[in-house]
Structure formats: structure tokens, C-alpha cells
Amino acid sequence: MSGVRVGSRGLFNARCLRRRTASSFVSSSPSLPPIYLNSIFCSRTPSTSSYSLYSTATAAATTMSRPDITLYTAQTPNGIKISIALEELGLPYKVEKIDITKNTQKEPWFLEINPNGRIPALTDTFTDGSKIRLFESGSILTYLAEQYDKDHKISYPQGTREYYEQNSWLYFQNAGVGPMQGQANHFYRYAPERIEYGVNRYINETRRLYSVLDAHLAKSKSGYLVGDHISIADISHWGWVAAAGWAGVDIEEFPNLKAWEERMAAREGVEKGRHVPSPHTIKEVLKDKAKAEKIAQESKGWIQQGMKADAKH
Amino acid sequence: MTKPITVWLTPPGPNPWKVITILEELQVPYVIHSFKFDDVKKPPFIDINPNGRVPAIVDPNTNLLLWESGAIIQYLEEVYDTDNKLTYDSLNEKHLLNQYLHFQMSGQGPYFGQCGWFNALHSEKLPSAIDRYVKEDHRLLGVLNTVLEDKTWLVGDKCTFADLAFLPWNTRLDMALLTPPGEDPLAPYPNVQAWQKRMESRASWKKVLEVRSKLMDEQGLQPNGIPKGIKTFQEYEEHIASANEAKK
């Protein structure tokens, strides 16, 4: 996987072109920056593929290319979990940017991949040569760890104490921090009317969850949530904690969590992965209150449109 | 011989019952440490789960303490479901099971929970908040109904832990949506309704209901979670409202 060959539109089979304005990009080996493509991606089976992420030599030598990962994502805390994990692992992957402002994630072709109509989703060629489609960020992280993290760079071996503890924190994020901070975002930034009770309920629950993380990190010897190195439990939290201010939570209240967030941000994999599929700007945005409010106002429109569309089903 | 696993729980909420259902299905010995919901954020439980949420388990066989119901289910499956009664060891199926478990944990659980809060439990009625969560519940049910089209179970051809993870919250939907007595909130979703009935008819769930109602009774609660002496959800709401008023 020493190089990258980027396909042009001409290499794709015309029958699987999708009528969307999508900008795909190909990420690569750790030594190369992501390459943005103004092309349209289509799913391929390995046997008919004339397009490879690998160097020509590698592609020629491999009949079934694996990994053959396509990440369907947008610039959100859940989306960047996956690109950060992929970068930490140094895996090649294609990116399909999903325009959630246009409700692309509810289009039939995407619902085929994730019936829940949410990003991120991921497809890969499975060990049996057939395609696997995955959704739910926590489940995708587990998949990547089990399939591709043989050296346990971002996970722990199955059956170890650290493995099970990593799962506790992973679920804590997916069932706790994510949903609750998401509701705080809704009531603090997007709701059609200002409901103080709703704002306070979710900001306070997010603060409570952060205080659990903060107290736990205070005791951590490695500076990470589980064991002696980074794991998918940390990766799962980072985008949300980096966006604390968007939910009305002041990270200064949680010094250990703040230090952890900065420790994570200093990692090469996090730095690369966070800018997928478009630049991660939330930290800069939050420094400028007026800009943050302007973006929230703009987002309100498409978010409430999406909610209305959901309610029709 | 397997030593019994201790399960820490407060009886009214749905999440501990996922774990008990799995333990019953796998016939793993367990003891329940039942305590009051008022004490979840206090010692000794807060020392077991720093998040102050049930369930948590302590397994003396492996000397492991674990919390988050999804993580506990995966642990029990890995260690105690060696015959693959509720799981698959083929990789595709394994990850699809994981996917649906995460969908339950980050979708169905939190949203049914918030809906129940704003619709039934919170004293102040906030129409736009209620509307948000009722709609999301219906959306999630719609997704499940689509996924279950022409299918008996979520993954493969047998009931798995991923199916059973949805069972306890489904039984609380009437409260979350304030469904009139005698009506089935799942009726508009026939595939989900049939799936739920298949799960409820299992011996494990019958046992769960038995254990649960006994533990609820110990704490002066009726099987539906409402304190004894209060007949309907409406009456319960009034009771909560007056209790909140008294606190002020």
C-alpha cells in the first residue's frame, strides 16, 4: 500500500453512476494526504473492478482487494469517529460525502446501506468476497478493530479485561454522551422555540456525563480511557468533546477531559481523520460567538426540514 | 462449576431486563441485587458504575465488573453462549448483530426514554418537545418495520441477542406514547408487532416478568412501574406534579 492511484470518472461503470452531486475522496497510506476527487463513486465487485486504491502492482497481485472500504459520511462528531479510526490504523478507504443538509441520507440508495438513514455507514468486501454494509458508528468501530487492528493499536485483544472495559466506555458514548449531547444541541441551537427546561435538562445531563469522564481520566495512568493506549473508546468520544461548546457545555469545567481532548487532538491520526469529508472547523467556530450563532441559524432551516420529512413516514 | 453472576438493578427501568433475559436464555446462574432507583447515584452503586445507571454485573468466575447493558450482553454472549444459541460465529452475522445492538442502544433506548419522560413523567407539558420524541419513536418503529419485512428475526433465522435487546423497551412503548388502555402501540407496525409477540412468548421473558413483578412488589410498585394505589398514568402524572409542587 505504498501509493495511490486515483480513478477518473471514465473508469467507472456507467450503469452505477448515481445522480447526485457528491464529491468523493480517496484517503491513503499514512504518508500521503487525502486526495479530493470531483468524481462520482459507485460500488463495485472486486472481480469487475478496474480501479484500485493500491499501487498498480499491488492491485495486479490481489484478486480480491481487501480492505475495500467506502465510508459514507459527513462532517459530524459521529462521522469523524470512523475516519479517525481509519487514519489511526493507516487503512486505505474511499469517502462518499453525504450532504445531510439535502437529506441525501434518506434517499433510497442510501437506505439500502443503512435503513435508519443516518451517517456514518460503511461498506467493505468481506472475507467471503461478498459485500458487507454496516451502520451505527460504534458497530463500525468494533468491525474495524476486529478485522484490521491485528496489532491492537486502537483496541485490546478479545477476552482481556481491557477489551470488555473498552466496550463499556464505547456504549457509554453511543448510548449516553452522543444522544444526550445531541439533544442539548437540539434544544440549545436548533429547536423551533426556546424551551429553558429542555435546554437545561440536556446540558446538565451532558455535564454529568462529562464529569464521569473527567473523574475517570483523573485516575488514568496512560491518559486514555482504557488501558495503556488509545482505543476506540477514546476515538468515539473525541468529536463530541471537541464540540462541547456547541451544546452549551463549558469544557473548562472539566480539566482532565480538556487535557485528554488536547492530547487526542495532537495525534496525527486524529488530525487527519477529523477533516473528513470536509474541514473540521468546530473549534474555530466556537471561538467566535457571532459566527457560531450565524451557523446555528443557517442549520436550523435544513434540520427542521429534515424533521418534517421524517415525520411524514 | 459456574458461580452465579451478580446483577445490580433497580426494577422499574427496562435496561436491566435485557441482561436478565439473556441470562435466562443461556441458563447462566445469577443473583439479583435489587435496590431503589433513588439510590443509583449513591454508594455503594456509584462505586460500581461511575455513571450511576443500571444494570451492572460482577462476574466472580472472571473477576470482572462491567456496566452498560450492551457491553454486558456482548460479554455474556462471548463467555457463556458457546453453543451459539443466541448468536452467530460467522463474521458477517456477528457484525450485523453488533450493528443492531448499537442501533438499540443509541436509538431505541435513548429516544423511547426521552419520549416517556416528556410525554408521561415530566410534570410540565411541553408540546414541541413531546412532538419531537413521539415523531422519533414512530420513525424508529418504521425503520424496524422495514427491516423486518419478510423476516422473522433481525439477523439470520433464529432469535438472537440483538432481537432480545429491543424487547424490554418495546414493552414500555405504551407508556412512552401514552397509548390508551387496551390498544397496542405496535399495531401500526405489523412486522414489529408480530416480532415482539414472538419474543414475548419465550419462556425467558415469562420468567423475567415473574421476577420483575416480585421485585417491583417489594418496592411497592405495580407491574407497570406505577406505585401501588395509583390506577392510571394520568393519575400518576397528577401524583408526580403534586410531588414536584411539594418540593418547591
TrEMBL record, chain A:
CDD domains: GST_C_YfcG_like (cd10291), GST_N_Ure2p_like (cd03048). InterPro entries: Glutathione-S-Trfase_C-like (IPR010987), Glutathione-S-Trfase_C_sf (IPR036282), Glutathione_S-Trfase (IPR040079), Glutathione_S-Trfase_N (IPR004045), GST_C (IPR004046), Thioredoxin-like_sf (IPR036249). Transmembrane segments: none annotated. Belongs to the GST superfamily. It comes from the Eukaryota. This is Glutathione S-transferase GstA. SUPFAM superfamilies: GST C-terminal domain-like, Thioredoxin-like. It comes from Aspergillus kawachii.
From TrEMBL, chain B:
GO terms for molecular function: glutathione transferase activity. Keywords: Transferase. CDD domains: GST_C_Ure2p (cd10293), GST_N_Ure2p_like (cd03048). It comes from the Eukaryota. It catalyses: RX + glutathione = an S-substituted glutathione + a halide anion + H(+). Its EC number is 2.5.1.18. Belongs to the GST superfamily. This is glutathione transferase. It comes from Aspergillus kawachii (White koji mold). The lineage of its organism: Eukaryota, Fungi, Dikarya, Ascomycota, Pezizomycotina.
